[in-house]
Amino acid sequence: MMVNEKRILMGNEALGRGLVENGCSLVASYPGTPASEILESVVRFAGEEGIEVYTEWSVNEKVALEVALAHSYTGLRSAAAMKQVGLNVASDPLLRSAYLGVVGGLLVIAADDPGPHSSQTEQDSRFYALFAGIPVFDPITPREAREMVAGAFELSERYEIPVVIRPTTRVCHARQNVPCAAPQVLNRKADFRKDPARWAATPLFIAELRRRLNIKIEGISGEERYAPTLIPGDGTRLGECLIASGAAYAHTHDLVAEMGLLGRIDFFRVGMPFPLNRDFINRINSLYDRVLVIEETYPVIEMQLSSPSILGRRSKTIPGQGELTPDAIGEVLEKFLDQPEKRRAPAGREQGVRPTMCAGCSHRAAFYAIKQTFPGGIYPSDIGCYTLGMTLGAVDTVHCMGSAIGQAAGFYRAYAGGDFPAIVATIGDSTFFHSGIPALVNAVYNRARFILIILDNSTTAMTGGQPTPQSGMTASGETGGRVLITDLVEACGVGFNREVDPYEVEDFSRLLLEADRYTRSPEGGVAVITARHGCMLEKETVRSQPAFRIRVDENCSGCRVCLDRFECPALVMVEETGRVVIDEVRCAGCGVCVGVCPQGAILRESEG
Amino acid sequence: VRQQIVISGLGGQGVLFLTRVLAEAALRKGLDVLTSEIHGMAMRGGSVVSQVKVGDFLSPLIAAGGADAGLFLEERNLAVHNGYLKPGGFLAVDSRGPGEHLRLDASGIAGRLGSPVAANLVILGCAVRHGGLFCGREAAEGVIGRISRDPFRKTNLAAFQAGYSHEWNSGPGGGAS
Questions:
Q1: Range 399-458 of A in CB contact (< 8 A) with B
Q2: Are the beta carbons of A551 and A579 closer than 8 angstroms?
Q3: Considering the entire predicted model, what is its pTM?
């Protein structure tokens, strides 16, 4: 690529580009919205530039960070990329890594999802940075995200400390014209210098390591280069200022400009929310008597400022929840700056058409069979496309990665001793690898009784189809070792370990009843059924299965059973005729709906 | 040039593809561009919206009442997303029925071209002709030709052209064609 060539890059691609340009030699990640494209773009840019960067989809974020840490111990640059709740999983290695530090630059890219749009919380990863004692950068645009990578590696190596970059959805999934540069080649060789007092630090050494960490954070908070930047006002609003960071800064900037107030009020932009620059804190606390802090999603900057004149989340000036969109910030700014209130038509994302599983999705068939077989069951489920099983009434709980299995065991214990209901947990293949395995071992060991359905569509579908350990393919498309789910289930000590194609609804239902008998038999326990069928978003799946021509005949009574209990987007009610028709554009021709119609009005004609 | 465009549809209808076409067209013209889109759960057939901002913006999001133009691939989304439009902003929607705004049967047109999913490009072609977008026909076609995957290139361009040649009389009272 030409130096300084401009390209349209998504924020995640810009981060990936930054890693490749700055001599990062290892990137490990687990897919999760909004962070999934970071690793994929590292693979792409390294390939384009013909340079070696080792990339891996780790089984979970904890493992990803541990792999990256050891790489850094040898003096090489590394990064671990994940979504914000992935940092919960990686928090164990993260917190200790602050104490022990690093050698080669190590970046943790934790993508937050204010709103949230596609997450189970809207937590703020900058809080983890503050909690751990790790500096964090908060980019405002894709262009800046790429630029921050160079400075973050430099800081990481100069202080021997991990550094967090915290983009949000509006950076990760924004696209922008971004200037790119040729990658720098560092020519480093792995050189691990043993130092057990540091790398294997026992409690004896921890107080000393923490003292050194405190000195590092003190040093960083005193460096002018990480201090917030200022667009100064012209003196008309003396004693007042705005402070913002991340995407919220971008929105605020454009809104203030639109109001004609850019350059009229002191407006600070915080690039490093922790540690907040020492002089800046003093300046704010002593020079201003009206301060508005705008940041997502928790009051991290706000809490480091101690002045009582701070307006923000704690004063309830800023909404305590939800994304800070231009509309949300606009309302706050109008009040703070005494501007006329703009009338805002609702432009929300709350209503509209709700999502559903794809036409032909085997999860739909599986949930249909589960719900029909055990109408009174309890259905713990998990994180992935199949969370949408809620719309079929076959998902009762969703908590965090892997929790379906732990919760199924918990439900069993609550009802054990009596005639317990059928407890049918569902978990996806990638989620099972991520954190289902320890929970399954636990359930077998502690003699829980429930049915676990592993929905195995051979991919990480929700996040764009990343390979799993079972696929035998690595992040860079090379051959990897193959780990089979049914082997794992066997090794977990499960006594009922069967497979089925969920398209075969009758076979599946029979197997469910058999599994139920097993969970209730004297020697029984956890019964596992691996429901295996490829994802319809994978071309190979569609190519390899027959596509039948489906038709609805005049026997359709308009009873809506197929719409309400099966909810395939290819089944459409025509209100004028009161009958269902097939939307042939969307229909995948799987034919599963044929068995759903109580009138027998859905017909499978021929292979189209 | 400063222009804000909102693209609304359902997951799978090609909202992201249109977003990319417009972003690449801006790049070709040497304009600064920012877009915003939502991935993940919403993409499974639910209502999605993406935003394109051309010019010297920092924020990728459009405030209510800020969009100069709206490209609606799904009529049911009008109620949800037309609040983004400026009063008097241009709005094209894929629809067979009569009503406000520029309505055209983009799905029908694309279907007759053999590629129902190219309805998004019919709408784009129409908006490029009638909506005063920052980019013209040549820039848009250049990008579509470059970023379309092989078997779809021809029908994508045909869909764009069909939309472009759609006649519309934007007189008072809106315009059915």
A1: none
A2: no
A3: 0.95
